[in-house]
Amino acid sequence: MDVSIRFRREMDKGLCRDTNPTAAVRMLPTFVLSTPDGTEQGEFLALDLGGANFRVLLVKVMADGEQKVEMENQIYDIPEHLMRGSGTELFDHIADCLANFLEKLGIKDKKLPLGFTFSFPCQQTKLDESVLLSWTKAFKSSGVEGKDVVSLLRKSIKKRGDFDVDILAVINDTVGTMMTCGYDDHLCEIGLIVGTGTNACYMEQMRNIELLDADEGRMCVNTEWGAFGDDGTLEDLRTDIDREIDAGSLNPGKQLFSRRLHKMVRRLVPDCDVRFLQSQCGSGKGAAMVTAVAYRLAAQNAERQRILDTMCLSREQLLEVKRRMSEEMVRGLSKQTHEQASVKMLPAYVRSTPDGTEHGDFLALDLGGSSFRVLLVQVQSGQRHKAKMQQKIYSIPQETMQGTGEELFDHIVDCIAAFLEYMGMKGASLPLGFTFSFPCHQSRLDQGILLKWTKGFKASGCEGHDVILLLKDAVRRRQEFDLNFVAVVNDTVGTMMTCGYEDPKCEVGLIVGTGTNACYMEEMSNIELVEGNEGRMSINMEWGAFGDNGELDDFCTRFDHIVDDSSNNPGKQRYEKMISGMYLGEIVRNVLIDFTSKGLLFRGKLSERLKTWGIFATKFLSQIESDRLAMRQIRSILQHLGLTSSTIDDSVLVKEVCSVVARRAAQLCGAGLAAVVDRMRENRNLNQFSVTVGVDGTLYKTHPHFSSIMQETLQDLAPQCQVTFQKSEDGSGKGAALITAVACRIKSEGQH
What we know:
Strand order of the largest sheet: 12-22-21-20-23-24
Subunit structure: Monomer. Interacts with TIGAR; the interaction increases hexokinase activity in a hypoxia- and HIF1A-dependent manner.
Low-confidence stretches: 249-255
Domain Hexokinase C-terminal: 189-258, 508-742
Enzyme class: transferase
Shape: elongated
Helix content: 25-40%
CATH class of the largest domain: Alpha Beta
Oligomer: single chain
Family: Belongs to the hexokinase family.
InterPro entries: ATPase_NBD, Hexokinase, Hexokinase_BS, Hexokinase_C, Hexokinase_N
Number of strands: 24
């Protein structure tokens, strides 16, 4: 146990950047990133150089249905004068033998990938680049130490000029052994050699290998453990070992050695189930395996990159999105083109943000999903930021959402009555702000004609009707309390007002949650749908529909088309479908399905659950990207999706897909916002413009990178605007009450 603890300490020293140069156990990175997964196939050459003779192998790997390996090999010797002569002659000799082997097999015209087992101490900088530190085992060829052995071999092959190979990997024999056995047993992640010398290698988490700046995935580390004790760490134990050697018990009983080894390991780590698999074919097959794996990884990587690149937007493309959004805004505001415009730019009849003189008690109703909130907001005059809120949440049964409009509004009014009674205000007559998060047409603040139900609502007799009248009729039927004024507010405008109460510069509202939308204060003179040219009015953009006339077609990928086609409103809300929470998980799910069907992920095995619409919840995106050590969390999410046998490599990939999809969403959102704030700046003829955006929505609030990428994009595309973001803490209900308060203030000012 004591030796085990000391060794562990030495491993940590070797992995740590500061102590590595002096560590006895060197812990060298091998750049082998994965063990075989069984899908490797093709023909590979291997060279095995580690003594006075060397082997050349041709390894055929088959993967159709069953894993099979066929090998042919030839042993060549190295004359003594070459072992001590010049390096050029040595590598020329190796190239000659290779040519002889290829000729014998009649495959000299094929350019095959080659793996090179080179069993001497080397410093590796890439998988195909290995600098010889010092010769051992009686080799003394000049001009090789300090040089990359791959380039020396390439040079000799090029000199001959009658064949070519693709040298993909240099490995040492320990790694070769692990890879050889790893092909037959996917749990094999450790290589051990106990022969003339001894060494071990194993798969380590990238984040622990400080010599490399990477923290995703894993890499095989060659411990070079034979040197353990070179700095005196084992002095107090050495006599025992000497005695063992003297007694000669290490050599005679080979079996005895392995049996003792197994027993000892099991005793020292009882909680690890360790199996020993003997390598039958030496490390040459392993070199071919490393090459096969590298070949598979490179091909898969290129294919994945090609697919992910379709979802990466350049700065030019983002500027184009901004330009088209600006154009659509103009079309939505103009009387002539409003009908055809995809961005409807609906006037919201909110003329001013709070000035701090508002006061009184206001009710607010927040309806936008299967539950709704009733709030009492008490606004105290002259004290900005002082609004007391009490609220209760009520649910709407499924049958009420899909019954008649009368039933729906009767249920809402019953809940308001219950709330007033609970607050001890039974029978009061109060103004109400109604956050109604469905598309409405307004021609004044206290009217909202429902254009169409969304989010699963289907109550009859509501579309095309004024929801305020429907609400007031239900109040009249109940005859218990009265609403003396009602304002209809869209949730985006509500968010802007909630934040505007804290920060008077807040003139933009943004929601990025299940859906996405924005609003801002526009000059009355530009709003052709409303009479009057004085002052400003908030515009509910309904920007989720941007792209419904094809404005985003050249940025859409086939994954966007699949998500759109399988949604309940194909062809509608195209911008929203590339940005908001309801759809991002779906985009990711479809990319994962595509990757899997091409064998680029999950070993090509599709789980039934991953085929289910909506199974990849957007909250998973936030979780997966939130923590740099989250590979474990990612695996548990993948298990939830029925992918029980996913590997660390799969987790790294899933994370990358999530990050590409979320990045694109944040950039598109930033480009839209850039169009909005630049328009406001130009409206006011300013060179520099500073403004605050009130934001709400789960995606914006919970995703670890969405907000920063969006702000980065916005700053890049609208450099003359200084934009501050404020998260709305109280949702849009408080905003609805404030809008009502502002409206009541203006109304009473008008009466005086």
